[in-house]
Automatic annotation (TrEMBL):
Gene Ontology molecular function: carbohydrate binding
Name the record gives this protein: FAM3C protein
Pfam families reported for this sequence: ILEI
InterPro entries, sorted: FAM3, ILEI/PANDER_dom, ILEI_FAM3C
The organism of origin for this protein: Psophia crepitans
Single GO cellular component term: extracellular region
Subcellular location: Secreted
Family, as annotated: Belongs to the FAM3 family.
Amino acid sequence: GAAKLVVVIAIFLLTFYVISQVFEIKMDANLGHIFARSALDAAARSTKPPRYKCGISKACPEKHFAFKMASGAANVVGPKICVEDNVLMSGVKNNVGRGINVALVNGKTGEPLDTKFFDMWGGDVAPFIEFLKSIQDGTIVLMGTYDDGATKLNEEARKLIAELGSTSITNLGFRDNWVFCGGKGIKTKSPFEQHIKNNKDTNKYEGWPEVVEMEGCIPQKQD
């Protein structure tokens, strides 16, 4: 009887040892898989390119505001204006329309002030002129066309936009695509402007040129 008891105990201990070894091997394998996956995830995160405000290609220096904008696509997709990672105007926000779309931003703080669009095909240019005259000094002004932004523009309106720093506004024609960023009280011509003429031989869409996009860093207004 004593011999049988010893054999039973020995078998039990051997079985326990084998089970514990198998469990330890599986545990090591699982931990190894977890650590390997964590290392791969960390490597993926380290190689993923950083995202900058408004999705621009590089970070802006201090005392500058990041912006990105695009004109409308034909008469289907509206323009988009983003400043400091804040989408001010877009089709998703349902605050864009045919004509010239305008966003105003505080030149010192980067805070949005107002957004409006003015129909330059079937509308009246007078409200647009009054709006342009009401813009305060130090205000950043961003504009983008959608469908047609030029038919109702007169010399007075073009002159007021030129005073914001635009050089292309004098040549803006029927269904041209145009984006512009300037400022009230600017002393020089703005470097932020893109313009594509409506040309049936080069248009991307039937009757409309391709979308124009622009990004950059707007200097903060200093006292």
